[in-house]
Amino acid sequence: MNISVIGTGYVGLTLSALLSKAGHKVHCIDVVPEKIETIKQGKSYFYELGLDNLVKFGIDSGNLIPTLDYEEGVKDADLVFLSVGTPSGEDGGWDLTYVYDAVASAAKYIKDGTIFIQRSTVPVGTGKRAMVIIKETNPDVKFTYLSSPEFLREGSAVLDSIIQDRIVVGGDNDEAKQKIFDLFEEIERMADKITEETPEIHEYACTYIMNGDHKEGTFKDKCVSTCLESAELIKVCSNTFLATKISFANNVARVCDQVGANVNEVMNGVGLDRRIGRSFLYAGLGFGGGCFPKDVKGLIRSTEDLGVDASLFQQVYDLNMSQVEYVVEQVKDMDILPPTRIGVLGLAFKPGTSDVRVSPACRLCQSLARAGYDVVATDPQAIEESKKDYPEEKNFKYVETTEEVFKDADLVILATEWPEYKNLDYSKYADAMKNKAFFDARNCLDRKKMEEIFKFDNLGA
Ligand code: UDX
């Protein structure tokens, strides 16, 4: 098939690369020339496990064609996937400018029978508006519009896009919906081939499947066919529910801190209830990234716009954003007071990515620096992106190595649970500190072992 994918972010570029690997001719369109140039050279412009290999294959085979030109990109397309960014707008809702611009730009050039598939996270009602735009732009063309939200996680974008938990397709054209289910089944059938060719994905896949994340059942069992509005809501509600679990765990951690309970033990017990489950109940610095904060805020805005009470969602958001300040208070409770020196391990919003959008780790560095501490921070992947989004300040500097984080520090905080930090032999680093104190803000280190080396604390454990 001729396929066009608009937007080359985590969702769009991963999908483009996989579709081209499956043998389809894929035009991936973006409006940023530097991004298109990098993809033309056979690589991704952001870090994502296994993606470079796939992009290189797509470019070398000639199946993946990056372009800035909408006409070239969509004129022959049977399918047009929409995966442009939907950032937070000034009012807290999603800014849909890019979505509607992309829809209008593509609508000018599509042929009869083209199917639009919305993959970005958008508020309910976006599809209806998009269809009006297409009709107004190109009144005579026959088209179908579907919503098929993407649920991939950064850091495992490739694997999540190959083996999806569920495939949701909303709209009112059953034949078109079936085409999308078939396309994703075709991608899933490549799982073994891709994981064999890309050892690092293979390694991750083994862990992933052993962790029990992988569901049994046939592909058909995972296909969810809905109306347009339901599909739009499924994505936003999934993210907000997961965010709710995280804020719940962080709220419980604060209770544990008061009574000497251990939040990991509590959540292990709670999570064994099959109706609840253990995932996303890990207390820590809170959620960040390009999705959860924006999507929870977006749901609050669109719920309020509909005249429905959104206070439950608001609490989830507020508790999350206050978690960084809660950690600053915990640090003060350890008698580590400004202007002492604090080293921070980790800047990315979670391990496995260089993304620092709304990163709790970066926000923590800023907050500590503004409270008067002398802060140095590092990360295995995210220093460059952090420097752009969170520039160095008087009391806040980036350093390249773990050694520099510990040197002369009065306290070190683990802020992003990268495997290299989880597995570090801390006894080798402690001697370089001025005062041996450590705060595990991701609750991922062995308290007993750490207490042998440091004055140690963490969240609710
Ligand atoms: C999320 C959704 O998981 C994905 O389905 C959707 O398509 C996009 O948003 P992502 O933002 O990549 O994916 O990250 P995810 O792994 O879900 O983590 C989100 C944030 O929550 C991270 O900051 C992570 O550190 C935090 N988190 C997650 C916790 O603090 N505790 C947990 O138990 C789980």
Brief characterization of the structure:
The protein has 461 residues and is α/β, with parallel strands linked by helices.
Structure description:
The structure is a single chain. This protein has 461 residues and is α/β, with parallel strands linked by helices. The protein is 47% helix and 13% strand. The strands form three sheets. A six-stranded parallel β-sheet has the order 3-2-1-4-5-6, sandwiched between helices. Helix 16 links the parallel strand 10 and strand 11. The longest helix has 32 residues. 48% of the residues are buried. The structure holds uridine-5'-diphosphate-xylopyranose. Uridine-5'-diphosphate-xylopyranose binds next to helix 11.
What is the average of the pLDDT values? 95
Bound molecules: uridine-5'-diphosphate-xylopyranose
Subunit arrangement of the protein: single chain
Number of helical segments with 4 or more residues: 20
Q: Report the count of strand segments.
A: 14
Helix content: 40-55%
Briefly note the structural class of the backbone. alpha/beta
Strand order of the largest sheet: 3-2-1-4-5-6
Ends: how far apart? 54 Å
**What's the Cα radius of gyration?**
23 Å
Q: In percent, how much strand structure appears in the residues?
A: 5-15%
Task: Name the shape in a single word.
Answer: globular
Biggest sheet: strands, sense, closure?
6 strands, parallel
The low-pLDDT segments are: none
